[in-house]
Each structure stands twice: as C-alpha cells, then as structure tokens.
Amino acid sequence: MKTIDEMLHLDLLTREQHNEIAAWIARAETPEEILKMPAQLWTAMERASEVMGIDKDLLRPPALDATGL
C-alpha cells in the first residue's frame, strides 16, 4: 500500500485509481486474487512503476557492502 500511496503523491495515479487499487488489494485474500485486478488498473500501476523505476530497483544486484540484512 505504501507504494501506491507514493504513486498517488507523485501524481502517477489518480485518486480514483488509487482507491480502486487499494480496495482490490484489501479484498484479495491471496496473491492470485490480486493478479485478477482489472486490466485498466494494472496498466495504470505498470506506467507508474516504470516512471518510478521500480523494476530497475528490483533487478539491481545487492550491494556487496550491505550489512545487517
């Protein structure tokens, strides 16, 4: 939820999209149910994720000097 809140704050999602996505996630009991989110909401999240560089962050190798993880 923190990520979609940030997407809203950065004006990458509309208030309506944010509310619909948040409600869908809250109702979903499994990750599989989240994956059934309507296509227009997935598209909005994908665009926002791309602007935020989320995929690049997830694919970056961990820092070799990372400690305490």
Can you give a write-up of this model?
The chain is mainly α and 69 residues long. It has one domain (2-53). The chain is 65% helix and 0% strand. It is globular and about 40 Å long. The mean pLDDT is 89.
The rounded distance between the terminal residues' Cα atoms is 23 Å
Whole-angstrom Rg: 14 Å
Q: How does the major sheet shape up?
A: none
Assign the structural class, choosing from mainly alpha, mainly beta, alpha/beta, alpha+beta, or little secondary structure: mainly alpha
Number of helices in the DSSP assignment: 5
Helix fraction by DSSP (H/I, runs of at least 4): 55-70%
The whole-number mean of residue pLDDT values reads 89
Q: What's the shape? A: globular
Please write the string of helix (H) and strand (E) elements. HHHHH
How many structural domains in the coordinates? 1
Protein name: Addiction module component
Organism: Comamonas endophytica
